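Quick entry between incubations.
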Amino acid sequence: MINIYKVLIRNELLVELQYPLALAIWMLEKLLEPIIYLAVWTSVAVSQGGDVNGLTVADFAAYYIALLLVGHLTQNWHIWTIEWYVREGQLSKYLVRPIHPIHESITNDWIYKLLMMVVILPAMFLLAWLFSPSLQFDFGAILRFIPAICLAGALGFLGGWVVGLSAFWTTRNGTLVQMYFLMMLFFSGRIAPLELLPDFMRQIAFILPFRWIISFPIEVLLGWVAPQDAMVGIGIQFAWVVALILLAIAIWQMSVRRYSAVGG
Amino acid sequence: MTPIVHVEKLSKTYSVTDREGGLKAALKNLINRKKRDVKAVNEVSFDIEAGEIVGFLGPNGAGKTTTLKMLSGLLHPTAGVGQVLGFTPYKRERAYLSQMTLVMGQRNQLIWDIPATDSFDLNRVVYRLNPDDFKRTRDELVDLLELAPIITKPVRNLSLGERMKCEIAAALLHRPKVLFLDEPTLGLDVTSQRRIRAFIKDYNAKYGATVLLTSHYMADIEALCKRVIIIHHGKLIFDGELSQLAHQFSADKTISATLENPPENTDAFKVYGEVLGYEDGQIRLKIPKQNTSAMISKLLSEWSVLDVSIQEPPIEDVIEHIFASPKETSA
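Done. Structure below.
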């Protein structure tokens, strides 16, 4: 398996490096999102006398700078790829090979994410310089952040796969995918830190997996979660990962049975 | 001897939604969805022995590709048995997938943005090939298919023929024992078609591989397959030697006769059958099969004939005749 990953990684790098301009444009889009949220919440905070529900302008800055990193490391585009593979019958070429197609998705996922860190990290420093976030360096928080972000990345990936597999049933699963992203936007803490949501929405957010993908790792990194609560959170993330792996395996097996290999 | 491919009453039924065109029909369909079952493959049975190259024929939509997809593990059969190399294909066991290959014309398994040689390398690890064996097979394929100048160019920059040759090379790097080739020469020019044909023949001879091949080009079938299987409307209607096909299905024979004293025009020959051509004293006639002997005797008694021969019609015409038959009578 290591040999397979070595070649997959090399090929993926070769593919990604073919289109530097496309990468740069994607990147610009990624940078704009937190900057817009940051600008909006900063002006809301200023208009309310310096804070919203206890979150200051500097807190917002810290949150959205961290979102740039966490959002990037947990994003998922395979949700679209699976639909395309199924609709166009492209999946056939992966199914006749003695290797599960998920390995190519995993490689594509991490190569893209690692390559883009070259832009993400400087962008974070630039934003930190522009918006003066409230950051304290807490070594323990950074240590806890490592498993939290890895599990969040796995959750984002698996969530995308599970929803993407719905293409086997509906072929055009666009609306379901939109719903997934909409729920992600509100319940993950992407559009606003969860503390700002009404109570009932916050309760829903805690039941759903989205919070564990975005807001939890951000809060851990910023030291907003007590060490003990962070460990509990990591445990919950782990449980979600296991649940989604089992779900992905079950749905995959059902999906392949249904696959009608369109095109011919 | 156990057959390499064993197919028994294999069936595949698709459930399709039927509706007429237009917005009104689309809205109606939202509320009352009419589904109907389509038997793409209907109780097809055949065996293929090791080393055979079998042509799999049928018009578009006959069920050829569906059968190939079931045999390569892409589709689950609705009923019946499909076994290849002793494996049940849809279980997609590693040991099975490592010994077979499916090449679908125009379907790209190479990575589009990088040279084919990098895709070849991926197959090396995916199929767990020994580096020396891999290198030997790759070099041999590169040599046979004349790929040396093209495998270092990004696949997207290759012509259709070049890409197809690379596809075939990629599909054979692991030296599969069974090859399912679905229209491997589709869209290629005559030279590329001929080269791929020759290559399949060589590969079969060299490695004793079993090949099931579909093609709309009869030249492919005639050059490669002694045996053909024909399916039409999902049912098997012929399984036998290609040479027997015309004998079984053709309603007519062609008689060519060279006459000692050829007449001015062909009017006098219309009593025998349809005149296909008349040139340099040689007349070609299409005669219903059951009348052949009677008409030859009549011709020989009425004309001074220098030479006469009876031929089966061209295989293309026979196939066209079979495929044109309606569903009720084809089986």
